[in-house]
Prior knowledge:
Layout (H helix, E strand, L loop, with lengths): L1 H20 L3 H17 L3 H8 L4 H17 L1 H9 L4 H20 L5 H29 L2 H29 L4 H25 L5 H7 L8 H10 L5 H13 L4 H25 L5 H23 L6 H30 L5 H26 L4 H20 L25 H11 L1
Helix pairs in contact: 2-8, 2-9, 3-4, 3-9, 4-7, 4-16, 5-7, 5-16, 6-7, 6-9, 7-16, 8-13, 8-15, 11-16, 11-17, 12-13, 12-15, 13-15, 14-15, 14-17
Membrane topology: Multi-pass membrane protein
Subcellular location: Cell membrane
Protein name: MFS transporter
Amino acid sequence: MRTVDGMSSTIRLRAAALVRSSGGPRYAVALAVDALGTGLLRPFLLLYGLAVLRLSAPVTGTAMTVGVVAGLACMPALGAWLDRGARSSAVAASMLVRVAGVVLLLVAPPGGAALFAVAALFLGVGNQAWPAAHAALVATVSEGRERDAALAAGRALRNAGLGVGALLATACLAGGASALRLLAAATGVAYLVAAALARSVRVEAPPAAGRAAAGGPAPRLGTLLAANAVYVFCLNVPEIALPLVLVTQLHASPVWSAAVFVANTVLVVTLQVPVTVALARLPRRTALALGGLVLAVSYLGFLAAGGLGHGWAAPAVAAVSVVCTVGEIVYAGTATALVTELAPAHAPGRALASFQLSTGAGLAVSPAVITALAPHGPAALWGTLAAGTLLAAGAVARPGADRPRGPRVPGATAGPGASGVSPARSRAVAARTR
């Protein structure tokens, strides 16, 4: 019995340490509330424009696209703000700007295309700003491989919140336009609560880092950013590529697409932290290249599975999707951590903002690329994705690619000083314990 109790205590201690390195209990609650609210509305924003505001599909889709592009355009300004020391305030701002977007959705009358467009813009800015601001905060309060695990835990928690929110919203959709308005209102409240919790953590970078940022050069991460824009296609495989192939090419039941999406979410939630911790044995660059290799193998697996006979193709595609999800987990658990490792101490914000810019660009173009390749056959789709990902993995693995110049972010390797705890982390911990 003592052995079991000891194991339980160890697990609790590790969980508590992971929460602390992720920003603290209040910040973890803020992430969960924010993700839950996002899951309630974001998958159904197009439906809101169509069913509640009675806009046409082209107008609604164009407004949403403009919102995403505007969010990407704001990334350089966010990077500069982060390099001046903003952390919890930047996270809270990314949530508050989405509150403004939700309010505009609620007050927009039927046919209010202009208000919907501005609402989509605010939501797009907040959605694009949050990942970089969150990564900068975690990099400030944790270091080394502990930071990798903290970033992985944040992703797992966010995916869980998004999934729960989407399930709740799906159950409410039978209520029609009134239910969609209620979901939007609940989303706004969730964003407001999350912003208050995030701001209360009061984490900022040391003033010295902020002063150094003013005159320092921007980080050079061209190889990694270009590779990331290709890697990120994997995030749209379960949502776009596989449903397209399963339904239109293999003529399988839509149930298979739903099963693949649910399995992807469950695997990310359960395996993101363990896999990221296990990868700590490898250099981050090697692990990221390995993730690209796994993704490329899965794409070739989809190509082979699609050629199986009737009745076998859909189950085979679903089985290969597990391999693709593992590649996604390796990529997501390594890429942001590698950016924080390579970023110079004077410009972590600009490095993370540039990384999010490449991520957003890849996510924006991937649906168009996937849907353009699919009509030309499985070889064109999966062969192109596999070749592109292998090239990206090779570029990442190349020795000397994006070699950092000057000091790195404090705590990126071994922590400074005998204690191994960066000044930024000491200040953040002190702020949380006041």
